[in-house]
Write a structure and sequence with these properties.
Blueprint lengths: L1 H10 L1 E3 L9 H28 L6 H28 L5 E2 L1 H34 L4 H4 L2 H27 L8 E2 L6 H7 L5 H34 L4 H9 L2 H18 L8 H25 L2 H15 L1
Length: about 300
């Protein structure tokens, strides 16, 4: 056991990345560097636009600004290390570095999911109970929802990382992924991972499925309420306030469910890499475009921000 622990701690891991083909490293670096810049700049603009326009100081945009901040943190945990590895021959990450990356990745990803659930609740109250909206969604309640989202997510991450730190790694140290995710790291362990897999699946179901079910319930209630609106214009107006959020939910949860809600025996390296890129890089990059292109309030806020910068 001492040899196993010594090996895992001193040697660290090798991140195989998206491709082992040397000719693809520089093109992949360029692509993901541009995507990371778009993610950072786009989400910063969303935050600044919301902060600078008093008309956007509402619960919906409070959660959106925090979602944008989490998306920046989320991608920063993964992409910079991936970019370094594209240009490096060793592609090594230390044992502690791997656990730290795993911790913050799960913390920010789970906070994202809880914020998406909070935004669904906001739409539910706005559409189904508009007369009580100011009471239910007052600033103090929104802040409590944000603090609860962060607290649950970080406790979940701490539990998972402590569980992973008890495993031993005595054979291959090559992680067939571009970051330290749970499934590919579990694949390398020479410990008995059956109990860990069971705990991970059970706890993941409890933590990740809860906000997802909250979103499903909210939209079922919204659909029932909207269908009762007599005019087609009224129905379209109500649904249009949910379109951007629903698009992000489908992109985020579609890939998350595909990657994590399967047994370890069904883990597929290439398919999981593609799905993971979708929710770790592509979705955070698309969020600013999704929330701004079809949102008149955000367009006005961004225009006001632009005028303020150039004035």
């Amino acid at each position: 056991m001492e040899t196993k622990n010594y090996s895992s701690i001193t040697s660290g891991f090798i991140l195989l990345g998206l491709s082992s083909n040397p000719q693809l490293q520089k093109p992949l670096f360029a692509i993901f560097f541009i995507m990371y810049l778009l993610t950072a700049v786009g989400n910063v603009l969303i935050i600044l636009a919301i902060y600078s326009d008093p008309r956007l100081h509402t619960p919906m945009y409070f959660f959106l600004s925090n979602l944008s901040f989490m998306d920046i943190c989320f991608t920063t945990v993964i992409v910079p290390k991936m970019l370094v590895n594209f240009l490096s021959e060793t592609k090594v990450i230390s044992y502690v570095g791997c656990l730290v990356q795993m911790y913050f990745f799960m913390a920010f990803a789970n906070t994202d999911s809880y914020l998406l659930a909070s935004m669904a609740i906001d739409r539910l109250v706005a559409i189904c109970n508009p007369l009580h909206y100011d009471v239910v969604m007052k600033p103090w309640h929104c802040l409590l929802m944000l603090m609860g989202s962060c607290s649950i997510s970080h406790l979940h991450s701490l539990f998972r990382v402590l569980l992973m730190s008890r495993l031993s790694f005595c054979a291959s140290h090559v992680i067939k992924h571009f970051f330290c995710d749970t499934q590919p790291v579990l694949k390398l362990s020479c410990s008995d991972t059956s109990s860990s897999q069971m705990v991970v699946m059970t706890e993941t179901l409890a933590v990740i499925v809860t906000p997802f079910l909250c979103i499903i319930f909210s939209y079922l209630r919204i659909i029932v309420t909207v269908l009762r609106i007599p005019s087609a214009a009224g129905k379209w107006k109500a649904f249009s306030t949910c379109g951007s959020h629903l698009t992000v939910v489908v992109l985020f949860y579609g890939s998350v469910i595909y990657v994590y809600f399967r047994p370890l025996s069904m883990y597929s390296v290439m398919k999981d890499r593609v799905a993971t890129v979708m929710y770790t890089v592509v979705t955070p990059m698309l969020n600013p475009f999704i929330y701004s292109l079809r949102n008149k309030d955000m367009k006005r806020g961004l225009k006001k921000l632009r005028d303020r910068i150039y004035s």
